[in-house]
Every structure is written in C-alpha cells, then in structure tokens.
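User: Could you walk me through two proteins back to back? I'd like the raw sequence and the structure tokens for each, with a short line separating them so I can tell where one ends and the next begins.

Assistant: Of course. Protein one, sequence then structure:
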Amino acid sequence: MGSRITGTERVFRLGPQPTLTLRERLILDGLWSGKSTNQIAEQLGLSLNSIKAVRHRLLRKYQASNAAQLVRAALAHGDLTVV
C-alpha cells in the first residue's frame, strides 16, 4: 500500500517511485531551490520550451497538478532532501 501525503487541499497516495533522468533531476532541483522556469533555462543553457516540456513530464511522473504538489511528492519519494 502506498504512503499518504497530506496537503492543505487534499490527501493523495504515492504511486511507484519514478525514475528520473539527469535533466529531470536538475530541473527538479531548480524548482526546489525556488528558481523560475526562465532562471532554470538560463542556468542550464536550455530553451524555455525544453524546460517547460521536462517540467510537464515531471508533473505527470509524480501525478501532480502544480509545482507545489510536485515538490511535496518528490520530497515524499526521497528525490529531494531538506538541508
């Protein structure tokens, strides 16, 4: 049975652990650090459309509908850590 994450608006179950590419991990780290999509694109030397496409793929992988849910799910899966 999957773990539960409680948020202010709903409770959802974690799906299986998603496998992340290096690019997905870099973009997830950028979102976690509070950077905008434009800042991440500039930092990684990628187009804005590339970052948006990967961000959309991350939302699907984590079954999230926005960046806040994405970060919460990634934290719950252990893909991000609080330092």
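----
Protein two, same layout:
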Amino acid sequence: MASWEDVRRTALALPESSEVSSRGRASWRVRDKGFVWERPLRPAEAAALGEQAPEGPILGVRVEHLGAKEALLSDDPDVYFTTSHFDGYPAVLVRLDRIAVDELEELIVEAWLCRAPRRLAQQYIDTELFPP
C-alpha cells in the first residue's frame, strides 16, 4: 500500500509542483494552488465517524468536480471517504494505507491537472500522457 514517500515522489515529479509545510503538515501545490495535502481527522470528525473513523494516515485530494467526488466515494468506500467539513467541496479523503500505489499516482496526477494552469496542464497531457 501507499506511503507519504509515494505521495511526495509523485507530487514533486509533476511540473512546477512544490511541497510546503504548515502546522507540521505537508501539502503539495502547483503555482501556489494546493492539490494534495496531509489531513488528519479533527476530534469532532473522528467522533462523528465513530467506529468508521480511520486510524491510519489520511490524504486530502482535490477532484475535478462534485460528480468525480461522488464517483470515488461510491466506487471504493474502504479507501475514499469524506466528512461534513468537505460537504459541497470537490475533495475526498483517502486512507493512505489502503490505496494501491498505482491508483494513488493516478489520483495525484488528476488532482494536479485540475489545479494546474490550463496551459501547463495541456502541455503535460501532450508530452507526458499522450506523447507524439
């Protein structure tokens, strides 16, 4: 399963990405727009989730839109979840210790694509995802 090092390696391999730390938590940005971040549960969130609250590392991930969020949540609820804090917001929480590395890599690239400036994202698509 995936680790923080997998997150770091994948995120920083994307063009113009950087890692920042705030309050001791890492987040990854493209031109100052966050696309993935370390997101432990707050006490109220853990209480609201009850026995469903994960105990391992949690990654916050931006998604393209609320439809994509709902698809991930319904596709694999053992890996993806959310809290009321993210209601109406295009992001999911990921149980890092339950996601396969290749799935994590795809998720991070998709998060980067939805936050990167349009030209930079298109350049990445043209050269890395669909090279000539």
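The chain is about 40% helix and 25% strand.

Let me know if you want the two compared in more detail.
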